[in-house]
Each structure stands twice: as C-alpha cells, then as structure tokens.
Amino acid sequence: MHLDLPASGGKESTSEFVELSLSAGVEVVELVGGARRAPHPRFFVGTGKAEALQTRVAETGAELLLINHILTPIQERNLEAFLHCRVVDRTGLILDIFAQRAQTFEGKLQVELAQLRHLSTRLVRGWTHLERQKGGIGLRGPGETQLETDRRLITARIRQLRKRLEKVRRQRALQRQSRSKAAVQTVSLVGYTNTGKSTLFNRLTGADCYAANQLFATLDPTLRRLDLPGLEQLVVADTVGFIRDLPHNLVAAFRATLEETSEASLLLHVIDAHDERHHERQAQVNQVLQEIHAADVPQIEVYNKIDLLENGAPRIDRGADGLPLRVWMSAHSGAGIELLQQALVEHLSAGRDGSVASAATNTYAPVRQRLCLLPQAARLRDKLFKWKVVQHEATNEKGEWIVDVLVNHGMLAYLKRQQGCTLKACDGGQTTIKSPPYDQSDKS
User: Between 20 and 30 A from 437 (CA), which of 15, 129, 231, 308?
Assistant: First the structure.
C-alpha cells in the first residue's frame, strides 16, 4: 500500500517499496495506491480506502499488509482491528530485512536493539487482554498489568543490549587507535543500497563477500587489507547501504558500526550511474552522513555500473586542486578499476611528502623514473612487476637492477622511502632506453 502524499517520492518510492518487499521474502499479491493531502488520523488512509482494503484482503486471502509509510502505533492497531490481518509499516519492514540478514553477533545485537526500541511503542496493538491487572509476587508486582510487565522487561533488555554494544564500541575504538598508531589508513565504502558496494569491495580486495542484486544484501561490516603502490597500510571497509527514511532506531543501534565511517580517512561514495534518480539518492546518502557526523570526511564519488550506459567509458574527473573528484567505472566488468586504484593512491598520499597538488602543474601526471635496486630489494622489484609499471630492466656489473618505471605521484613518494632503492630522473623526463617496453609477463 502506497499513498501519494505531497512529500512522498511517487513512482520512485513505489518501485523501491516493491524491492524492499521482495527482499524481505514476501510474495506480493497486489500493489494498492492512493492519494491524500494529509494522512488520516485514525487509519492513515481514508475510511473509503480502508473499506476497499478490507474487501481486497478478504478476496485475496492476504495475511499481511505492508504500508510504505511510517505509521503511529494507534494507526497500526486500528488498521489491524479493521482489516483482521497483520499490518507492518516501512520501518517494521526494514527492521525485518535487517533481522534476516544479520550474521555476526554484533549485527544481531544491533538489530535486536532497534527492534525492541520500535516494539516498545507498539505493545498496545491488539493486546487488550494484557491490560488486566494480576496480583501476586515474583516477576510481576502486586497490581502490575501484563502490559507494564512487558514494558519493564523490554526496558531491561534494552539496557543490557546497550551495555554489550558499548563494549563493542570500545573494542572498535581500540582497534581504530591501534591502526592510527601504525599509520593505517581506512577507506570506507558508502552509498545507497544496491549500488554495487560489495561487488566493488570484492573487485578491489579479492574478497568473496556476499553480493546480490537486492536491497541490503550487506549488513555486517567487513574489513580487508588492500595493497596498493605507495600505500602499504590501507584497510577497506564495506558497510551497510543507506536508504530513504532510514529508521532512526537503526541509526542509533548501528552507532558502533557507523563510527567506522565517521572515523575513516576517505569515503568512496558508490553511485549507480544507470539510476535515473541517482542525484536524489546521492543527496539522501549525504544527509545520513550528516546525521552520523561523517559529512566532513573527504569523498571520492564512484559512478558504478557504466557498463549499463550506452557510451559509458572509464575516466577520472578532477577538481581545481588536481585531486580526483569522481571515478567512472564498472565493478561488475572491472572496467576502470585501475583508475580507482590510482585515485586512491593520489588522494591518500597527497601532501605526505609536503607537496601540494596543482591542476596547472599536473602534479599527478605519470613520470618516468630510473631506479637502482640493490640485491636486497628483490621484494620491491617484485612489487614493481606486480603493479605493471616497469618499462625496461637491465643489470650492471655490480649485480644491481637498473629499472625504468612509469609511476604517479603516490608511487614516487613510496619509492623514495624504500631502502635499497636509489632514484635517478631520466634525461629530460624521458627514458634513455631505446628498446621496446619491457614484457610484463617475463621477469626472468
């Protein structure tokens, strides 16, 4: 059930609502629509629409009515009593999806906390028999109603969950502190749900995380190390996707997880380039980032799924300072993944050696460099071939490797810090080797 209200998203909201229902494992029998200037205080929908819903529920034998809006507890109770079937609003639907997807102990605690906070305001729905007072000693106090007992038990459970999650939060804070002392930088993937964050995460890190074309396929955060030239200490985090009208109970319950985003060195804002309304969803993600105090973290916009565009080609868009602003790529096909890696290296290594990027001087343009590698730098030599930057290699009479490479700013800063490696600029910025580029597949 979806009502077109002045503040609703119209057709876009309806299609997303259907996707949410399917993600929850619901068999959609019929999608009922309507329009009102303002919600009805009793049923949310008008009395006429409520009667029509009652008829359709009886005819189809539906056991559940999903409403793509946030209802008050009284509205849910009135609708259930009138329709004689279970009624779940948008918040309850999202919470149910999260409950199905939670796998880790922390994720289950977070979802249970959000569910109990939501349930605590809805205990009166249809449970009039719980309002009877029962005397006695033990669990219930003299004269305490069953409703009051349930509220007390829920409050106690919420307090217990908060303590456990606070312990998790302290553990995550200690882990971030350890990474900070070790100069480990963290990149967090954020974005609207079902934009391809997990597919991109797997493509970047070689992980095998669950990725599917459904809303909230990822719930539990995953961290993996990423080895890039110039960035020895780098961790990438895959996070839960955001959505329009994300329940505040979820945001509060997932505080420990979302702090990984607010404390990250860089955010990769993954956007579905094929989505016609990606600008609106991008604004909604930025609004959630504002709520979790992550709006000031530097961002690189990753326009994903360019393979679904007619003339989609991988590219990097840069700002006036020369730093990458957005990367156009496809995580599914891998097109443009090397551009994203380059953007990560440039952004995270900028200013590390005191240099300042400039669009006019093109600081991040690839430069040719000649390296003299001592025999003990064999591991570094192997990395250079792995990164596919070697243009030519030779050995001198001392047994040292003379390697000509084509590197960017970040790689160059990394090489300057390595032991057993001496840098020499090629004549005029060009290599003096006249032979063809070195075959990357032959390191012998």
Answer: 231
Structure tokens belonging to residue 316: 């990097």
Beta-ladder partners of 401: 373, 395
Contacts with 163 (C-beta within 8 Å, 6 or more apart), sequence order? none
pLDDT digits (tens, 9 = 90+) for 183-210: 678 899 999 988 999 899 999 988 777 6
How far, in Å, CA of 14 to CA of 57, rounded? 20
Q: Which helix (H) or strand (E) holds 90?
A: helix 90-101
Please state, in angstroms and rounded to a whole number, the distance separating the CA atoms of residues 116 and 142.
Answer: 25
Task: Measure the CA angle with vertex 121, ends 116 and 122; round to 5°.
Answer: 90
Cα–Cα distances in Å, from 434 out to 314, 319, 391, 392, 438?
Answer: 31, 36, 11, 10, 11
Distance separating alpha carbons of residues 70 and 86, to the nearest angstrom: 15
Half-sphere exposure of 289 (CA within 13 A, CB side): 27
Q: In the 8-state DSSP scheme, what is residue 437? A: P
Rounded Cα distance between 216 and 101, Å, is 8
Integer Cα distance of 348 and 186 in angstroms: 10
Query: Could you please report the per-residue DSSP string of 395-433?
Result: E-TTS-EEEEEEE-HHHHHHHHT-TTEEEEEPGGGS---
CA neighbor of 371 nearest in space, from 330, 431, 314, 322: 431
Give CA–CA dist 336/315, Å, rounded. Answer: 7
Tens of pLDDT, residue by residue over 146-156, are: 777 778 888 89
CB 327 within 8 A of CB 299: no
Can you tell me whether residue 328 is helix, strand or coil? Answer: strand
Q: Over the Cα atoms of the chain, what is R_g?
A: 28
Label residue 159 by pLDDT band (50, 70, 90): very high
Structure tokens at 64: 């559940």
Strands (E), 310-419: 315-318, 324-328, 367-373, 390-395, 401-407
- 38 vs 8, 27, 32, 207, CA distance in Å? 11, 29, 17, 48
Which of 213, 209, 206 is closest to 222 using CA atoms? 209
C-alpha 47/C-alpha 40 separation (Å) is 8
